[in-house]
Amino acid sequence: MAGAVAPKRQDTRKFFENLSGAGKSIGVLTSGGDAQGMNAAVRAVVRMGIYVGAKVYFIHEGYQGMVDGGDNIKEATWESVSSMLQVGGTVIGSARCKEFRTHEGRLKAAHNLVERGITNLCVIGGDGSLTGANLFREEWSGLLDELVQQGLISEEAARTNSVLHIVGMVGSIDNDFCGTDMTIGTDSALHRIIEVVDAIMTTAQSHQRTFVLEVMGRHCGYLALVSALACGADWVFFPEMPPEDGWEDNMCQKLSENRADKKRLNIIIVAEGAIDCHNKAITPDYIKELVVRCLGFDTRVTILGHVQRGGTPSAFDRILASRMGVEAVLALLEASASTPACVVSLVGNQAVRLPLMECVQMVRVCVYMLERQRSFENNLSTYRLLSYRKADSELPNSSFNVAVLNVGAPAAGMNAAVRSAVRVGITEGHKMFAVNDGFEGFYKGQIKEIKWGDVGGWTGQGGSLLGTKRTLPGKHLDKIAEQIRIHNISALLVIGGFEAYVGLLELSAARDKYNEFCVPMVMVPATVSNNIPGSDLSIGSDTALNAITDTCDRIKQSASGTKRRVFIIETMGGYCGYLATVGGLAAGADTVYIYEEPFDIRDLQANVEHLTQKMKTSIQRGLVLRNENCNENFTTDFVYQLYTEEGRGVFDCRKNILGHMQQGGAPSPFDRNFGTKVAAKAIQWITRTLKDSYKGGRVFANSEDTACLLGMRRRAMVFQPVAQLRDETDFVHRIPKEQWWLKLRPLMKILAKYKTSYDVSDSGQLEHVTRVRPKETNTSSTI
Question: Who contacts 193 (Cβ-Cβ below 8 Å, separation ≥6)?
Fold first, then answer.
C-alpha cells in the first residue's frame, strides 16, 4: 500500500490503547432475507476484528446456527473471508429460526456463546432480526443466571461474560428501515431491475409493446419508485400511496397520449404489495387485462422475483458494507455496559450510529409512516414532474429562457440530468434551450429550443447526447455574451466537470464587463473523476466505479486460476485518486497508488514484500491499482517492471490500463437518480433566483450567491457560490484541497492487512433517529 509502512510509534500506541480487541470475541451472523453486500460486511467485520486483536466467529445459518451450536459456530481467519467481496447472497448462510423466538431457544443460544466467550454480536439483517437481537441482549443476564442454576456454566463464566454488546447492520434490498438512507443490497437490487428494464426496452420498442414489470416490495415501494425514476417508466404502483378511484382511466389516457407522441413502448412498474385505495391488490395480470381491454395494446408481464436478490453486489453496496462493517467493530469496542444496542448506517455520505430499538419502533409506528410519506412524496413529486406533461394552459406564465449545456469530458448520467432539467424547466413555465458541444457550441451559436418529447428515453443513455467539449469560455466572452443576447437567455445550467467549474468562475468574474452574464448560473458536478470542490460526489463516478469493479472481479478470477499472479491496473481520474482508492476498496485491492498520498521506492519495495508474504498463504493472487497521474516517474510500466523483477520466482505480473471504458456504458441506477434529482433541484433554484432578481422588466443577478455549485456535503445538498470555492481548489492539479474519501484509505489498508493508524475521531457517534435528517432550507436540502 502506498505509504503503508509501519506507522510512527505514538500513532500505533494511540490506536491500540483506544481500540484494542485483545481478549474479546465477536460473533457475526446474517439473518432473514439475503441481500447482495452481506458478504462484504462479514469480511469487513472479520478482518477489522482480527486486526485489533479480537477473535471473530462465524455463526452459520443465522439464529438457527446460534441455537444449534456445534460446527455452526467457527472461528474465522483472515484467509477465510478471501474472495467473499464479489459474491452475492451470504456465504455463511441465513435461515428463519422459530426456536430463537422461544425462551428455551435463546437459552441454548446463550449457552453456545458463553462456551466460546462471545459477548459481542454483529447482526446483519432486517428489523425482525435486529429486534430479536435486542431482546436477546435484554434477557442476557437472566439467561446466564438460569445457565448457572442448571449447572451448564460456572459462576466465573457468568461474571466474565456478564454483558452482551450488539451492533446491527441493515441488510435488506427493500430499503425499508428507518434512520438510514440506503440499506445493504438496495443498490444492487436496483442494478438487477434496471438491467432487465434496459433489456426489455429494446424488444418492447421493436414491437410497440407495453410491459408490466413486478418488482419486490411487499410493504415498501422504494424499489418500484426509484426504478421508475431511473428508467422513466410511464406509470408506477406501490403500497405507500394507493391510487385514487379512477386511476384506470387516468393510466390508460397517459399511455394513449404517449403513443400518440410517437413513443413506441410503455413501461409500467408494480411493487408486489401494490394496493388501491380500497385495499384491493393491484396485480400485473389485472393491469395487463385492463390495457388490452381498453387500449388494445400488445401487453406482456415480467415478474422479476428473486433475480433482484441475486448477482454480484454493486460497487456502492461493497463500499457501504465495508464501511459499516468496520464501523460496527469500532462500535463494539467502544461499547460499555450502559451503551444501548445500536445500528450503524449511512445518512447522506456520513456514517452514523442509531439506537436499535428507536429505529425499529419508528418503522412500526405511524410516525415513521408519516416521515416515509414525506420522503416518498418528494420522490413521487420528482417522478410526476418528469413523467406527466401538463397542458400549456396549466403551466405558470414565465417569460424566461433557460439554457442547459454539458461541459468537460462525458460522464454517465449527464443525459438523465439534462432530461430532468428540461422537463422540470418546462413545468416551471420556462422555455428551455439546449447548447450543443459545451462553451464551444455556445460561442458558435449552436443553440436551439428543446421540447418535452426531445428528451424522451434519455435517462438510460450513456455519454452526452448534447455533446460536450473541454473548451473554456474565457477567450470567447464577447461571442458568448452576444449569443445570450440573441437568444435572450435568462439563466444558465452547466452540467459537467472541472472545466464547467472553471468556466462558471470565468463567466461570473466577467459580470462587471458584461451585463449579459448577470443572470443566475448554477453548476451540477458531472465527472467520473469526482474532483469538483464543493461536492462529495459527482454524476458519473458511480458508473465508473462499477466499471472498474467489474473488470477487477474478472481479473481476480483470472489470477486465481493461474495462481501466484499480480495484476497492475491503471485507472483514470487525472490527479484525483478517488476512482483508484474507492475502486480498490470495492474490488479488494492489495495496494493503491495515488497522487494525494506521496510514495517512494521504499514504499514500493514494502508493497512487493507484502505481496510476497501473501503468496505464502492460500490467497495466491494480487491486485494493485494505480491512478494515472499518481507519480510522473513511477509510471504504470515502471511499477509493472519493478514488481516483475522483485517478484521473480514468487509471482508473475500482468498490467491492464482501463482507459475510456470507465467513461462509457449505460449509467448506473445511482447516477440516473442522482442526476435526475440534482438537476431538478438546480432548476427549482433557478426559478426562485429568477423571481428574486427580476426587477424593472429585466433579470439582473450579479451577487456571489447567484453563481452557484450544487453539491453534496456530508448529509445535505448545498448551493455554494463558486467564488467562495476558489480557496478550496488546487487549480494546478484540478482537485479540491480537502477530500473526504482520503479517510477511507486507512480502512482499505486495514482490510488488505497493512498496519496503519486509523483516525476514529470521525467515526459515527450515537444519535437519535429524529435528529438524523437536517431540515430542508433554500440553501440546503437532503436528497
Answer: 213, 215, 223, 227, 304, 308, 669
- Spatial distance between the Cα atoms of 76 and 691, rounded to a whole number of angstroms: 62
The model's pTM is: 0.91
Task: Give 572-588 pLDDT, tens digit per residue.
Answer: 999 999 999 999 999 99
Q: Is 323 annotated to bind ligand?
A: no
- Per DSSP bridges, beta strands 342-347 and 350-355 are antiparallel
Whether residue 278 is annotated as binding a ligand: the answer is: no
307 annotated as belonging to a binding site for a ligand? yes
Catalytic residue among 68, 174, 542, 671: 174
Q: How far apart are CA 122 and CA 42, in angstroms?
A: 9
Contact at 8 Å (CB) between 517 and 508? yes
pLDDT digits (tens, 9 = 90+) for 509-536: 999 999 999 999 999 999 999 999 999 9
pLDDT tens, residue by residue, 92-120: 999 888 999 999 999 999 999 999 999 99
Contacts of 188 (CB under 8 A, 6+ apart): 35, 36, 37, 88, 173, 311, 312, 313, 314, 316, 317
Our separate counts of H helices and E strands in the chain read 24, 28
The two most distant CA atoms of the chain are separated, in Å, by 91
CA angle 314, 317, 323 (to 5 degrees): 140
On whether the CB atoms of residues 549 and 587 are closer than 8 A, the answer is yes
Separation of alpha carbons 236 and 174, rounded Å = 16
Active site residue 174: yes
164 CB-near residues (< 8 Å, 6+ apart): 113, 119, 120, 121, 136, 137, 140
**Residue 425 assigned ligand-binding role:** no
Residue 165: which of 413, 342, 321 has the closest Cα? 342
